[in-house]
Amino acid sequence: MEAIPLRLPIKLIVMTNENKPLKGRDLCPSCMVKLSLVLNQLNHLEKLFSMLKTTLNFQEACLYTGMSPSQLYKLTKSNKIPYYKPTGKLLFFNKQELDEWLCRHQEENMEEKMNEGNQQQTESYRQDLSEVPDKNEVL
């Protein structure tokens, strides 16, 4: 599959017959609304189309994962996330590996929360037991 360049956001320049750019104030309000709807749809389609790729560049990986560039860079620097650097400079990510990494960490977080919950239940149960008087003391 051929690489498709990602250009976000799309900007539309409407040209007049004299090849001069038409400014927003020169368009009627209904035309401006229609243009903004078309631009929104184009941006949405471009985002969807870019998700068909299997290899993502750094910016696309940020958009795909929802991470900030600094956060993603820190994860690559500490080798906590799978990435590729074929030229020694640019960072690339395999989309399937990113999905696996994201899901793996979600499962680990869920397990940690479950363990924390179990520990809290065990501690409260022990505390409840310590408050129950001994059988011999009641009689």
Kindly describe this structure:
The chain is mainly alpha-helical and 139 residues long. Helix content is 58%, strand content 4%. It has five helices and two strands. The chain has helices at residues 29-50, 58-65, 69-77, 95-131, 135-138; strands at residues 55-57, 92-94. The protein has a two-stranded antiparallel sheet. The longest helix has 37 residues, at 95-131. The radius of gyration is 28 Å and the shape is elongated. The N and C termini lie far apart (82 Å).
Q: Please, what is the average pLDDT?
A: 76
Radius of gyration (Å): 28 Å
Give the spatial strand order of the biggest sheet.
1-2
Helix and strand content put the structural class at mainly alpha
Share of β-strand residues: under 5%
Given as residue ranges, the uncertain stretches (5+ residues, pLDDT < 50) are: 6-10
- What is the string of helix and strand elements? HEHHEHH
Individual helix count: 5
Biggest β-sheet: count, sense, barrel?
2 strands, antiparallel
Instruction: Please give the alpha-carbon distance between the first and last residues.
Output: 82 Å
Globally, the shape reads: elongated
Summarize the amount of helix as a percent range: 55-70%
> How many DSSP-defined strands?
2
